Amino acid sequence: MEKLKKNRRTYLILRDVIAEKIASGFYQANQRLPSERELAEELQTTRLTLRDALFQLEIEGKVFRMDRRGWYVSGKRLSFDIGLDKGFMTNVSDQGYIPTTELIFCEEEAASGMLAEALNITKGDPVYHIQRKRSINNRPVLIEDIYLDLSRYPGLHHANLDSSLSVVLADIYGIKVKYSDIQITPIAFNDLHAKSLHVSPGTPGTLITRTSYDADCKVMEFDQEYWLSDVLRVELRTSNKY
Amino acid sequence: MEKLKKNRRTYLILRDVIAEKIASGFYQANQRLPSERELAEELQTTRLTLRDALFQLEIEGKVFRMDRRGWYVSGKRLSFDIGLDKGFMTNVSDQGYIPTTELIFCEEEAASGMLAEALNITKGDPVYHIQRKRSINNRPVLIEDIYLDLSRYPGLHHANLDSSLSVVLADIYGIKVKYSDIQITPIAFNDLHAKSLHVSPGTPGTLITRTSYDADCKVMEFDQEYWLSDVLRVELRTSNKY
DNA sequence: AAGTGGTCTAGACCACGTC
DNA sequence: ACGTGGTCTAGACCACTTG
After folding, report:
1. What's the pTM?
2. Does residue A242 fall inside a structural domain?
3. Conformational region of residue A185, where left means phi above 0, alpha means psi within -120 to 50, and beta covers everything else
4. Has residue B90 been placed in a domain?
5. Is residue B162 located within the same domain as residue B224?
6. pLDDT tens-place string over residues B22-71
7. Does B241 reside within a domain?
8. Nearest residue to D12 (CA, C1')?
9. Helix H or strand E encompassing A191
């Protein structure tokens, strides 16, 4: 590797060099890259400049980090059709990946003002808060917070929450989603959520917020999904309004 | 400003200090922050660490950069309801901001393979390519590429493309959008698009791709919008499927 | 012309993951 | 215990924007 020019966007050149090695298959999907010090030496540059190049590739979704574990080559993005209510597990396995869900906690708590508004209840009312971590091929890719109006779902504590919640609500309570209001916001992971996903605080994320309504147009659940941006592509078809 | 501890995520502390000054109104929306060197001195740190803090705030959407011009405090995000086909101009002005559109170019070109597929025509067929830059309160926030099957829209060259394209298509050709297929993908700005928006290459962006269909379910247009992530929140309601 | 942000150098120590 | 990535220092020059 010959010496590159100084002070002239070296990191963009390095970015392209590494991107090319990924495109050509020299580095394979999900493979760990050599250590930063090795790569920097191989490319005749400093660690700092090399890291700039890797950050670029990270934002582009071509590599990802596991905090303090190293850099890995990203796989294909998950295509997430938000109009179908397919659920995470089905959606991921349909695309040939292995999904897993881990329940982090579920507990009763008093509704905050924001939650009360979202669930259309009174502040301080009991809500059921479920937090789950979901992975694709063993890589954690999203943290999900689900909030339910506890008075609507007596005995929910006993249900198995590792799989699809909508199946549970349909089977036990006979309640199905009619439609949902959804917000998609680009965000940065905060320190807590970042830690859960083994990434650095500030990693680019996509927050998908969903308020689901049942056949009576009553709020069924309020849901916040914090996705790592590089794994995701959202798809949808607008409804026909004519 | 007292001296902070070494080697201990100083930049996260600095991030919070600056975020607090923004939240408290000490720094107002759209105001330019002091120069990096000034801020670093004021906060008793190095420019590099200070920049780490600013990058964090950038990913969080709390500040933004104009390339080589400095750091600015972000305003409220634009809420973009993707189900309504309100159009950029109306949408922005409804939320109290001033929208502008600048035509960068429009030209006839031969369809690439990808385009031919999207427009359901044959590779090499003539397409009309329109590129526009759109701004909110004078800040450029998105680059838009529109592709049209030229054989469907004879004489399109003469139309005024500064305003709404859908209005043009409806008024002149009597064609209206029935539904659209949409993809939302987190991306990084490439060097070209970054330059157009006065941001650095690699700035986080959101690509919204839209294929619009008319009443006969024929493709009307294919559209790629490259948004700066920090200005945007996408909203939608899933269609009722029961 | 001055000042700014953008990039880069050549180191260093720390906390954590892995063995 | 070792190596890794994460963070930080104290500079420097360049390209560009602004006055």
Report:
1. 0.87
2. no
3. beta
4. yes
5. yes
6. 999 999 998 999 999 999 999 999 999 999 999 989 988 899 998 889 99
7. no
8. A7
9. helix A191-196
